[in-house]
Amino acid sequence: MKILGRIAFYLLVALIVFYAVFPFYWAIVSSLKTGSALFTADLIPTSPTFENYIALFREQPFAHNIINSAIVAIVTTAISLSLAATAAYALGRMAFRGRTVVSFLILSVSMFPQIAVLTGMFELIQVTGLYDSLSGLILADLILTLPFSTWVLTAFMGDLPRELEEAAIIDGAPPLRILTDVFLPVMAPALVATGLLAFILAWNEFLFALTFTLSEEQRTVPVAIALISGAGGYEIPWGRIMAASVIVTAPLIVLVLALQRRIVSGLTAGAVKG
């Protein structure tokens, strides 16, 4: 029975890995094909070519779109973590009236679908003069990443030992000093895990980027990929779309692999107490 159970376990793991990895592998294979070869079911391209990648950067400002996405995602993540850390300290370590209500209000904001807040965000961005700018996208993306980051970091903050805070208070450290010098170093894995998830959320965001940008110079990669068109705008260039998808996904995979230890530590922090 143990052998059968182990075989079943490995088969399940293999199925999950295949389900998760095969779409990306197929995108890589398709990006190396052109013409009628795109519609063949070859698992390994017989005549691989980088024509789709070359055309992607030659015929449109795709490199500039990548830079735009990087700027928006990095700045959004940095602001989210900075504000979420201070909010998490207040919600997780300080006792005040209405703390539970505030926590659930923050959580409820992240439950709203983007389309529900799209009109209000559009009016806000127009009033502030941030339409068709990266600053406007950063402001819009914060409504997605900030509540999520605050809620996650609050859970981590509440699990930290009370003795650390009490020792700092005895030494005369103010609350901001306690947060920056005592709690944040201990919460490094949690910050990395939360920051990576916020970065992915901002990097892949499409609806706000499509609505709040107009010019090619301000577009991010999800919108740039959606607007890729072939000759005359009628033919769908699947090869270039797949090449763009590979380029956009690759940095996320590299980040996850490079930070996997901290991510695992952050996601499991607080799981075992005592």
**For the terminal residues, how far apart are their CA atoms?**
35 Å
Helix content: over 70%
CATH architecture of the largest domain, by name, is: Orthogonal Bundle
Q: Count of DSSP E strands?
A: 0
Low-confidence stretches: 270-274
Largest sheet: none
Rg result: 23 Å
The CATH superfamily of the largest domain bears the name MetI-like
Portion in beta strands: under 5%
Element-level helix/strand string: HHHHHHHHHHHHH
- Number of self-contained structural domains: 2
CATH-defined fold name of the largest domain:
MetI-like fold
Structural class: mainly alpha
Number of helices: 13
CATH class of the largest domain: Mainly Alpha
How are the secondary structure elements laid out?
Blueprint: H1 2-31, H2 51-58, H3 62-93, H4 99-111, H5 114-127, H6 134-158, H7 162-170, H8 175-186, H9 188-204, H10 207-212, H11 221-226, H12 238-258, H13 260-268
Features:
disordered C terminus; MetI-like fold; 274 residues; globular; mainly alpha; 2 domains
Write up this protein.
This protein has 274 residues and is mainly alpha-helical. It has two domains: 1-49, no CATH class; 57-268, MetI-like (MetI-like fold), CATH 1.10.3720. Helix content is 74%, strand content 0%. It has helices at residues 2-31, 51-58, 62-93, 99-111, 114-127, 134-158, 162-170, 175-186, 188-204, 207-212, 221-226, 238-258, 260-268. The longest helix has 32 residues, at 62-93. The chain starts with a helix and ends in a 6-residue tail after the last helix.
